[in-house]
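Retro notes - structure team

What went well: the batch runner handled both jobs without manual restarts.
What didn't: labels got mixed up in the shared folder, which is why I'm recording both outputs here explicitly, each with its sequence directly above its tokens.

Job 1
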Amino acid sequence: MGRVTIEFDPLTLFGPLDRSKEQIVPGHDSNYWLEFHLAFYRYAEPRARGDVLDLGCGYGYGSELLSRKAKSVTGLDYHHPAIEYNRSHYSAPNLRFVEHDANTPLPFPDSSFDLVVSSEVLEHIDRRHDLLREIARVGRRGGHLILKTPNAASAAPESNPHHHHTYSLEEFQDEIRGVFPNAEIYRWVPRTEVKQQVVDFPVKRETGAFGEPFPSEKALLVYFLTTPLVVPVGEGDLVGDLLAVCPIRQ
């Protein structure tokens, strides 16, 4: 059994973080939601071998995960507090963070990246088609875009004030294949399990109220693990998020 280290950053937990942009903060939000989003990055990880762009990186946990395998990872986000957090919390030499609004042209030369990943970002963008064309420009021939966005068929009935547009399957196929003709379109259905593991207790143990020591230096860690079911369009009747895997300039 592997050792699990648990660290809590008091500033992250209780400090004045600006979390107004639908972003998940490691150590602050529940493990359930962090797992929900990390599952996308684990799905993309096998392709993260060269230079990677994490478009809409938020608080950087996915960029950090991909940097363990990639040659380099650039996390891009327009949210200044998130970029400041990332630059102070992640120090891998192959990982950098850029503050930029993806509604404007991307600040990179042509053919800069072997892989572009983007999870739950496109729906926040006003100029969505322009952004997809920019991704095609900065992607290298033979590379890929992996992009996930909510599905209008499974969205909550009330509108999300942060979203410019939530796609139907038909709209998504037309939008993506208008720029990436060979895109593969899937539905993404998250499967979340509750797991438990015996771990070393992460805090120094003191004697109890009556002077008796605690009976064990171990603790039971209960956590969530999300594994997605990725279903090709046309198979089954499951409704989930929309996922595109797009070859760039084949």
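Job 2
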Amino acid sequence: MDSLQKALSLLPHGPDFRFVDKLSRLEPGKTGAGEYQVRGDEPFLRGHFPGEPIFPGVLLVEAVAQLAGVVAQCDPNIPALSNLKLTAIHGAKIRGTARPGEIIHLEATVLKRMGNLIQARGTAKVSDNIILQAELVLSGDSPPTGS
């Protein structure tokens, strides 16, 4: 397994709720890029919307948060946090859609860390069109000390 795919394995999500298929770039603790292929067989597409499926905007936010989590958890200078979760969304703008067969290109940058909080900014694009911009806060539990 190459180092990019190894970093991706840090995601705690199961396969049915993983919205980053592969990483294309990673500067651990700083920034990263990845992608998700909208296959068309995802169960949520059947109801969003029948006959005209589009990838839900809230899952675009989740995809960017997952990528931001990978970027942050790979920081070689800071121990990974356990139970990392998305805890805040600021200034999210959904500017477009992704449909079956399209590839969502994701980018995330860690802006700062404060204890157990990670502030990040991310975007999602289809082709060259930005379909999501958001600032996110992730939080987790500190690793145990000692041992």
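One thing worth noting from job 2: The first strand starts at residue 22 and ends at 27.
We'll revisit the folder naming next retro.
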